[in-house]
Here is the input.
Amino acid sequence: MGLSLNGVKDTFIPRDIPFYELFEGQIENIISGTEVFEKFINTNDNNEKEKFLEQITGIEDRGDQKRFEISKALAKTFITPIDREDILDISTSLDEILNYIHTAAKEIKIYQVNSTESMKKMVEKIMSSIKELKEAIYLLKSKKYDEVFKHAVIAKTYENDVEDIYRKALKEMFESNDLNENLGHYLKLREIYRHLSNTADKCDDAGTVLIDLSVKMM
Here is the structure.
């Protein structure tokens, strides 16, 4: 059975799908999740931690839905404002940040360890990176790729800061006088530091995707 005229039109005529706005929705959701994560990190009250974790879980679920919306929009669109692969890479890299934030929050709750100053500093750096990614995402629509590039580069620099805090925290931890007596506790801390480091890595990955796009489009 042949395609109807409407079927042909639906397949080949470009649809006005706001991909840039969808990216903006993704990054705003990530900002919301990270803001709650900051509250989560800055309290050692178990009831508050439980409440914030529930909020992060809900935000992460919305993040999955937003990524699905972009994939669904791609399936319905013949012509896109940038390459389809770039759209998928941006969406996936952003979604991974929120996934790792959710994982880090779950690990902290499962291990039931109090937040440390090193954790708080790492999360501050992660938030700074995400804010730079937000600036880059909002510049995509206006095609200011030189500015996208600059913000993406800055976003990537915070990964090094997080790694420095991570290594210093590990050094101090394994030089502690009570290491042998509290080895289990310190191993739990190391796992959480590792998850936060991985979160920063995902911000770095998103910055790389935006840099690669900018270089291609400039």
In short: The longest helix spans residues 183-217. Helices lie at 5-12, 19-41, 46-75, 84-111, 117-140, 145-174, 183-217.
